[in-house]
Amino acid sequence: MRSTLRWAMAVGVLAVSFGAGAQNTIKVGVIAEFSGPFAAYGEQIEAGMKAYMKQHGDTVAGKKIELITRDTKGPAPDVAKRFAQELITRDKVQFLAGFGLTPNAMAVAPVVSEAKVPMIISNAATSAITTRSPYIARVSMTIPQVSAPMAEWALKNGVKQVYTVVADYGPGIDAETQFTKSFKAGGGEVVGSLRTPLQNPDFSAAIQRVKDAKPQAVFVFLPAGEQGIAFVKSFNERGLAQAGIKLIATGDITDDHVLDAMGDPTLGLITAFHYSAAHDSPENAAFLKAYAAANDPKVGRANFMAAAGYDTMAVIYEVAKKLNGEIDGDKAMAALKGLKWTSPRGPVMIDPETRDIVQTVYIRKVEKKDGKLANVEFDKIADVKDPGK
C-alpha cells in the first residue's frame, strides 16, 4: 500500500514538473530535409533560425524557445504527415515550421487544420499551399511572385522568344504557368516547354532541345542546389551562350549557398528573386553576422532559405509577444495577419487575406564582388504579391 502510494505521488510530482516545464516553453517543431539530395534546405532553414535566436536570445515573453527537428530526407509526404502528428500529440509543439518542399507542406495542411496549430512555411513555394489550411502562413515566397517580374524584365529588354525548362512538381509548374502567362500577355512567344524529373534529372536532352529550337532565351526554374549546378554546367558545355541563347531564371538557380561551386560560368546570369546575401542593408548585415556566429562554417554561405528561417523565428517571437506567451492557434493566426517587419531582404508583410508574404522582388546579375561571386541587385519591384491570388 505504501509503495503504491509513493509511486502515485512520484507520478504526480513528475506530471506537475512536466506541466510546469511545458508552460514555460514554446516548442517549435521543424519539419524539413536534413539529409539526402535536399539536405541543404533543412540545414539552411535551421541555421537561419539559430541566427535569429543568437541575435535575440532564446526566450520571448518569459518563455524558453525550443526547436524540435524532424528529417523527412526529401519529398516524403507520408513521413512529413506522421512527424507533424507526433510533434503535435506527443511533443505538444505550439508551432510547426520548416517545410523545404511543397509535397511535404501539402501533406501536413489537414493535420494543422484539425489540431489548430500555426504552421509557418520557411520555403515551400507552390502558390496553393496557404489555401489548404487557415492555419498556414508563409514567410518565404511563391514561385509566381518571382516568375512574373522575370517575364516583365525580359520583355522590356528585347527578349521576345523563350523556351521554358522547369522541374516537374508544384513550384516548377507554377513557374512555367506564371512566366508563360506574363510573357504572352506582354507580346512574347514561348517556342517550347519542357518539364524535367524532380529527382536525378539528366539535362543533356533538355539542353539539346533548347539549342535546336534557337530561342532568344531559356527561362529556367529548378530547385536550389545540385540541379542548378548541373544545368548551368550543361548549358555552357553545349555552347548555348555561344549560340546567342540567354539564360534567365528565378533566383533558385544561382542560390548563394552553391554559387561558388557553380563558378565563373554564372557570371552575367540574370535572375529575379526576393533575397540576395549581397543585399545592402543594416538588417542584412546584422543577419549575416549572427548567422556566422551561430553556425559551424561547414554550413556554408547564408542563402534565401536561411533568411526565411530567420524570419520564421521573427514572426514566432512577434506572435509570442502579442499573446504574452500564451499560444492559441486562432489568436496566433489573427496576430500574423497584416504583420509587418523589416527583414534582411527588406520591408515585408503577411497579407491578411492570403497569409502569404508581400515583399520586394529584385532583378539581379551574377558579378564578382570583393573577389567572390554574388547576386548583385540592379532593379527592383516593391510590394509584390502573389499574382495568382
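Second entry:
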Amino acid sequence: MGRRPRGTRARGLPLRAVNLLCNILNYMVQYSQAHFDVTFAALSDTTRRGVLELLGRADASITELAEKFRMTLTGMKKHVGVLEQAGLVTTEKIGRVRTCKLGLRRLEEEAAWIERYRQLWDARFDELDTVVEQLKRKEKVDGHNKRT
C-alpha cells in the first residue's frame, strides 16, 4: 500500500480512505509513466513514425506498408503491433487483408508533458541569455575603462 501524506489522519479522513487515495494516485502516476513508455518506445523507431505518416494520409494494408518500407510482412506486423499496443494504430481484418488506420489516441498527454519541458528549457535559455548579455556589458565597460 502507498504511504499516506503527513497530517491527513488529523484532518478527519479515515485511514482506509487515505490509503485508498494514496493507492489511486500512485496507480495513476505508474499508469501515466507506463503509458508514456509504451508511446515513446513506439515513436522512437523511424519505420513506425513513417507508418504513422502514411496512415495519416490514407488507410493501408500491412502488405502495402511492407512494400513501401521494403520489409517482410512479419517485420511490418511487428511494427504495427507495437503501434497498436500504444493505441496509435488500429487494425481490422476483412477476409485475408488486415487494414491499418490511425488509432483514436491523439497524444495530448504526451504533448503536454513535452510542452512542460520545452517551457522549462526556454526559461533556462532566457536566463542564460541574460547572464551572457550582462557579461558582455561588463566586459565592454571594463575594456572602455582600461583605455581611459
